Each structure stands twice: as structure tokens, then as C-alpha cells.
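Recap slide: SprT-like domain-containing protein, sequence and predicted structure.
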Amino acid sequence: MNKSRKITSFLDHFPPKVAEYCFNLWDEHQFDFIVSKKRDSKLGDFRYAPDKGYQITVNNNLNPYAFLVTYLHEVAHLVTYLKFKNKVNPHGQEWKDAFLELFDPLLDPELLPEDLIDVLRAYLKNPVATSNGFTPLVETLKKFDVPTEEDAAILLFKLPEGTKFKLKNLLLQKGKLRRTRYICQEVNTGKLYLVAKNAQVQTSEAST
């Protein structure tokens, strides 16, 4: 694929004003970039195998700004690996520094929405292993989602204790918070689940 066509494919997933920057990172590091189907367990990942080289994946269901955050999160893993191999913590200070350095040129109101920039500046001071772990960023990124018929979704922590909700075709009842997850009971079987406090859950059908 020639360079102009590849940039065009990046425009399909990234905010248009930053797509070329994201393409240039791929062009510089030459990793295998895969837009993956939705995965409930992760938004993206970075892998290295001696026989396959470097690979970065990002879920295809993310809006352009969430896609950007996840992409740079994973490129930061690649940059960190190139410098330190496996000698540092995957989400340690070295990765945090790389993540901030990659994002810094984009923290410009001419490139990204100002409300998102404000949240990103706070997040990047001490980024956590997943952007879903920082509630202000989760809520800001959600503003850019394209509404679908399923979007009667709400973040679990906003529901009162005892509320019934649907998640992955399970009907659950919200219980007590344990650190970053709620203990929730499946209504039909009584089985207990730990559900992330920032999980997007459905309430419309659950309340009928």
C-alpha cells in the first residue's frame, strides 16, 4: 500500500487533524497495525514476537478520540520496549514518560477539543494501565460516541446500590464497592460478579 493510501486509511479511525501524526509514528516504527473487532477485555494491546516483530491492535468500535488515546497508549509501550526491553514495569514511569511525550504535540486546541485537552493533561500526569481507570477521561471520551440503539448505557458507578442492570446479556444487581469494582449478583442464578465501576451498562430493559 502506498503512503497516500495508508494515510487515508488512518483518516478512517483517527480525528482528521491528528491522523498524519499517528501515521508518521507507524511509518517511523514500522509495526504491524491491526484494527481489531471489539474485545470486552481490552481496548488495545502491544505485542512483540521474534518471528513476527512488533504488533499493535486497537478495537474498531472506539470513537476517533478514544481510538487515539488507545493507539498512543500502545505506541508508548513500543517506544518503552525499544529503549528498555523487558527491564521495566509495563506501566511504570518509563512508559508514563513515553506516553506524555507522544501526546504532548497534540495537546493543542487547534488539533483536539479543549475539554478533552484539559482532561488529558490531568490524566497524563500519572496515567493508569487503562484509560477506563480514570473516570473524567471515560466520561469525556463518551461524549464523542456516535449514538446507537444500544446507547441507553450508563456508567455503573452512577447507579444507586441495588439497581438492576444488563451487562453482556446478564441481568445483575449492583452491590457494594470493593476498591475499583462492584460486587454484583446475577438475578437469575445468584452468582456473584466483580464489575468495574466505570463499566457501561444498560438499564432500560433491566427496569422493565
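The radius of gyration is 19 Å.
Residues 3-142 form one domain.
(End of recap.)
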